[in-house]
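Q: GcrA family cell cycle regulator, please. Structure only.
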Amino acid sequence: MPHVRDIPLLNLARCQCRFPVSEDPSVPGSHLFCAAPTAADRVYCDHHNTVATAVEPRRSASRFNSVPRLAA
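A: Structure for GcrA family cell cycle regulator:
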């Protein structure tokens, strides 16, 4: 995991991670951001890009037992 710097959005420079990492009511917007280096075409660092784009696998079966209905 990258070093978290906790920087307000207005203080972030180009190519700094914009992933919100904590809340601080004393700053405008109330959030602080990671600010780790990013690739020029990304808004998140490698770690937070993985977190933001992770897909949780779907459950293969419903928790309800479905009983097939027979035609009347």
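A: Brief note, in case it's useful. The longest strand covers residues 20-23.
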